[in-house]
Amino acid sequence: MLKIAYDPIYAHPLPEGHRFPMLKYELIPGQLLHEGTIDAANLFAPQPCARETVLWTHDEVYLDKLQQQTLSAAEQRRIGFPQSPELTLRELTLVQGTIDCCKAALDHGVSLNVAGGTHHAFADRGEGFCLLNDMAVAANYLLHQQLAKKILIIDLDVHQGNGTASIFSKEERVYTFSMHGEHNYPFHKEKSDLDIGLKDGTGETAYLSVLAATLPQLISEVNPDFAFYLSGVDILDTDKFGKLKVSVAGCMERDRIVFTELIKHHIPVTVAMGGGYSPDVRTIVEAHCNTFRLAASLYR
Known about the structure:
The chain is an alpha/beta fold. It has ten helices and eight strands.
């Protein structure tokens, strides 16, 4: 059964001025339920992640600041959100959601978190609307529990996964792959195991061709027994910040390339949604829902 992590706190932790980017977190499961792609049995609500588990990835001093609400003004500006207990709770909950998705993916081949993809969070700080790095925490959980030996992180958000690259820069058991806008945020890039920087205005055909040529070879070389997929929809041509030219249909084809290749090699995968900033929230929701629809149809 397809298992999807969702908690209402994903959508409601922020002041009114920050609400629009969060609307998708309640609209995605609502749309999937309405159309019959999933039912209530597919959804589960994670609990907040345990402190000990977070500390396998993040520095204790930084975690204390999050939990005790002692981030400096500069640290809050770097993150982009004002600190609040609700925001920290949200982050701990989505991190556990990604961990729980890993357990479900080991049983069912795939599992998806309605939130997650917080790839700008470093071990000792947050950046770019990311406080804790959910995929990094979940990957370290799998390694610590000996549930995986070699992990591939496929980051196809339009922004480089700089925090993830930094966290695993010396961890040979986790291979980081980021395909992103070369001249987009973050403007100082970290070094992933494989970075593919795309020029502004890269079109759909070129985007899909690069991915289709890269991913099979990468899987063959890395030989992972578990994968994470960050399926950001900020690659869309409608995105306010993305600078790429991929349609909603092309975004779905990107998902198909990833899922098909992982299925071919029997590699379980946990998926997180990442970014999406098109002016019309319906475009964002449709593109994200396509990822869930495709997973539901391919994994049976």
